[in-house]
Structures are given as C-alpha cells and as structure tokens.
Amino acid sequence: MKVVPLSEAKATLSRYGRLCRDEAVVVTVNGKPSFQLVPLDEKDDLIDRLLEEYPGFRSLLKRRLRERTVSVTTADRRLAVRARRRARRG
C-alpha cells in the first residue's frame, strides 16, 4: 500500500492513477488518511456508479438531456468557421 500526501498526489496524479491499478493508494490530508484511489474495472459502468453514489447526478443528467443538441457535422462546421475567424485575426 502506498500512502501519499494530497499535495504529492495532485502534483503527479497520472502516476498515482496508474499505480492504483497495482496497489492501494491512500491519500492523506494533514497527515490523516482521507481517501483511496480506486481504478474502474472495464465492467464498471461509470453512469450507474454516479447514479448510485451521487443523488444530484440524476437531476443533472435529466437537465442535460433536455438541452438542445446539434449533430456532429453541424458542430464540426461551427468549429471550422470559428477557427477561420481566429486565423484571420492573427
């Protein structure tokens, strides 16, 4: 098991994200264990986990699903127009 202070974990999060796949990584805050980094399994469903663990996520998801959407083609076109405008401005 690896125990690291929050400041170190923040500075090298990708390293500890990889390491937690091989061994437990416990993060301390003010010298006290605060949380453990846990990798998601391939079979884990992040949406299901969020719905179970965070009650507000369901309402956020419902609000987002009601928002207006655009096709990928339209989004690509809009981004290309913006890029051309920025390029002209220099």
Descriptive report:
The protein has two domains: 1-39, YefM-like domain (YefM-like fold); 41-90, no CATH class. By secondary structure, the protein is α+β, with helices and mostly antiparallel strands. The protein has helices at residues 6-11, 13-19, 46-53, 55-66, 72-89; strands spanning 2-5, 25-29, 32-37. The model has no long low-confidence stretch (mean pLDDT 91).
Concise structural overview:
The chain is an alpha+beta fold and 90 residues long. It is 57% helix and 17% strand. 3% of the residues are buried.
Overall outline: extended
Lateral strand order in the biggest sheet: 1-2-3
How many helices?
Answer: 5
Rg from alpha-carbon coordinates: 20 Å
Number of strands: 3
Instruction: Summarize the main sheet.
Output: 3 strands, mixed
**How confident overall, as mean pLDDT?**
91
H-E string: EHHEEHHH
Structural features:
5 helices; extended; YefM-like fold; 17% strand; 90 residues; three-stranded mixed sheet; alpha+beta
How are the SSEs ordered, and which strands pair?
Blueprint (H helix, E strand, L loop, with lengths): L1 E4 H6 L1 H7 L5 E5 L2 E6 L8 H8 L1 H12 L5 H18 L1
Parallel strand pairs: 1-2
Antiparallel strand pairs: 2-3
